Amino acid sequence: MAHGGDTLSHASGHTTNHAPTDGTEEYDTMGNTGQGMLAGRTIMVTGASSGIGAAAARLFAAEGAAVVVTARREGRIKELADEIADGGGRALAVPGDVTVPADVQRVVDAAVRTYGRLDGGFNNAGWATAGTPLHETDDAVFDQVMDVNVRGVWNCMKAQIAVMLTDGRGGAVVNTASTAGLVATGATASYIAAKHAVMGLTKAGADEYGGHGIRVNALVVGSTRTELMDQVLTDTPSLEESFVSRSMQKRMAEPVEVAQAAAWLLSDRASFVTGGSVPVDGGWTAA
Ligand SMILES: NC(=O)c1ccc[n+]([C@@H]2O[C@H](COP(=O)([O-])OP(=O)(O)OC[C@H]3O[C@@H](n4cnc5c(N)ncnc54)[C@H](OP(=O)(O)O)[C@@H]3O)[C@@H](O)[C@H]2O)c1
């Protein structure tokens, strides 16, 4: 079902009875029976057209949330919303570019218009390149990395927190950072700088709005099998060994494992967790 011409795709469905064991299977009726850890919540997910964001949207919906999914690839997020609806969940697809404030505002407005509230934001869209030393990196690449990873989170936090303050219910924001937000991982300098900035925005947001019932946390994501990772490994195959060998668990994450941590942080089960840099990295940053 479409709302607002081609820009929005709203999907709502009912029933199947498969347990949401890993976020990739069909959903049961938790979203409709109010039993999931995110029941009754409306959560915006950026970067939902693939990887961690898509896994998160599936999982959040299975945990009872209405999800508002966004990314630039409209076809992908519409398919995702339809898939969630077919599994009994609630999903709204709103295409947009996180670097454009008006696009982000449109997503937030659509969430409130459709579901009456916004309780959470999973600010997960990101972009990276690999293999180019700092002094050889084009300024345009630096700009794009900072725009997507930092300005994108900035745009989302501004729009999401404004709504949360207005309706007075509080809320939770989870920003996708990276091990590169804490240390020089071997990723490009611009990506490392960008993810460090995401940590700064997270801490500042947690501090400014903690008294208003709004929690803000960052995920310190380790190597995860997604399209972004596939691209990085295609560009620089030698990185795979270093990614896996330093991880205490000697493997990469599946996207749903990152999504599980985000779901927890967005839920009331993390009610006294804010300003955190939560590792989902197989022990990489502890090594
Ligand atoms: N995979 C890893 O190993 C790893 C490790 C640490 C951190 N991370 C972080 O995890 C997050 C998710 O990445 P992923 O691994 O799931 O990679 P992915 O599969 O490539 O997903 C990236 C997502 O970001 C979206 N995106 C990129 N630029 C955008 C823009 N300008 N506006 C709106 N959306 C945009 C993409 O959608 P469209 O192209 O459709 O717009 C896509 O949905 C990123 O923040 C990344 O930095 C990943």
From TrEMBL:
Positions of region (Disordered): 1-33
Q: Which Pfam families match?
A: adh_short_C2
Q: Keyword Oxidoreductase: yes or no?
A: yes
| CDD domains per UniProt | SDR_c
Q: Does the keyword Oxidoreductase apply?
A: yes
Give GO MF terms, alphabetically: oxidoreductase activity
**Which InterPro entries did the record assign?**
NAD(P)-bd_dom_sf (IPR036291), SDR_fam (IPR002347)
Sorted alphabetically, the keyword list is: Oxidoreductase
Q: Which domain of life, per UniProt?
A: Bacteria
Q: Where is the composition biased (Polar residues)?
A: 9-19
**The protein, known as:** Short chain dehydrogenase
Q: Which organism is it from?
A: Streptomyces sp. YN86
